[in-house]
């Protein structure tokens, strides 16, 4: 599965990183790049983020065309592997420690 050149795994890690790496972190994009495997440029990551924001705005505005799926089930359970859960926990702890050091 391909999301504009991004693998499903990259997207999943990207979204996890966005959730735990603070927006005010001056190294946010570098850390996100590291989390997703280090193969993307800062420009690519920022463009992907902007596309995600556009998609969210379209969905939240109600402009999303419901004809695509009629009665779509928009819920999906996501099961994280042990490694993904460990990464998410490490990112959360690292982010909390960074915030404590800054305050």
Automatic annotation (TrEMBL):
Gene3D superfamilies: Homeodomain-like. One of its GO terms (molecular function) is DNA-binding transcription factor activity. SUPFAM superfamilies: Homeodomain-like. Coiled coil: none annotated. Residues 6-53 form the Myb-like domain. GO terms for cellular component: nucleus. The keyword Nucleus applies. It is found in: Nucleus. Its main location: nucleus. Signal peptide: none annotated. This is Myb-like domain-containing protein. It comes from Asparagus officinalis.
């Amino acid at each position: 599965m391909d999301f504009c050149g991004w693998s499903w795994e990259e997207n999943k890690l990207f979204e996890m990183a966005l959730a735990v790496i603070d927006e005010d972190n001056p190294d946010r994009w570098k850390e996100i790049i590291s989390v997703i495997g280090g193969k993307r440029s800062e420009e690519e990551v920022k463009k992907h983020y902007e596309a995600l924001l556009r998609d969210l705005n379209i969905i939240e505005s109600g402009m999303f065309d419901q004809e695509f799926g009629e009665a779509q089930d928009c819920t999906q359970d996501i099961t994280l592997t042990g490694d993904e859960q460990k990464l998410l926990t490490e990112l959360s702890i690292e982010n909390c420690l960074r915030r404590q050091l800054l305050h």
